[in-house]
């Protein structure tokens, strides 16, 4: 780990920020579809700014949002295997390795957690570890960055932790909800998901059923 270098610090107040972030994650998981605020103050690797011409509009490699970065520092450690979507910058990789000491894996189904910014680039959710009938808790937890919680297709959530129903509209590809139906149908196996914007987190545990509003 000595050759991993970053000039970006982690939490400003490591104990308080980690505790607050963990409480927000627990609350988001217990109340699916309800955004929870993450207040940790920190510097995270941002997307690289590039000068582009109209004929060279290659998107910049993505960075981390503060909310997702705080979750990473809270959940990842030396005993955790992380699958990092290849589209992330090297600065994101170095920052995570330096501050968490986690082990990176190139195989999605070997990760305890997966960090994702491009849902459109995923072939399906079943590429991750779905757990087993005997040990469903060993499945991968997905940490997914999205642009917005209210600019996408409306979806109705029902299930444990939801009184009646919860309508959400995160900006995700349409086929994500097709993947989610398969994931929910595999219960008790299946992956759990946290969605992150700049400073909010939303939980989608595998127990939740999602119906797209047509």
What do these coordinates show?
The protein has 214 residues and is an alpha/beta fold. It has one domain: Bacterial phosphonate metabolism protein PhnH (Rossmann fold). Helix content is 23%, strand content 18%. It contains 4 helices and 10 strands; from the N terminus they run αβαβαβββββαβββ. The chain has helices at residues 14-30, 66-75, 90-100, 174-185; strands at residues 36-37, 81-84, 103-104, 113-116, 141-145, 155-158, 166-168, 192-196, 200-204, 209-212. It has a 7-stranded mixed β-sheet. It has a 3-stranded antiparallel β-sheet with strand order 7-6-10. Helix 3 links the parallel strand 2 (81-84) and strand 3 (103-104). The chain is globular. The N and C termini lie far apart (50 Å). Residues 48-59 have low confidence and may be disordered.
Write the layout of secondary structure elements.
Blueprint: H1 14-30, E1 36-37, H2 66-75, E2 81-84, H3 90-100, E3 103-104, E4 113-116, E5 141-145, E6 155-158, E7 166-168, H4 174-185, E8 192-196, E9 200-204, E10 209-212
Parallel strand pairs: 2-3, 2-4, 4-5, 5-8
Antiparallel strand pairs: 1-9, 6-7, 6-10, 8-9
Helix pairs in contact: 1-2
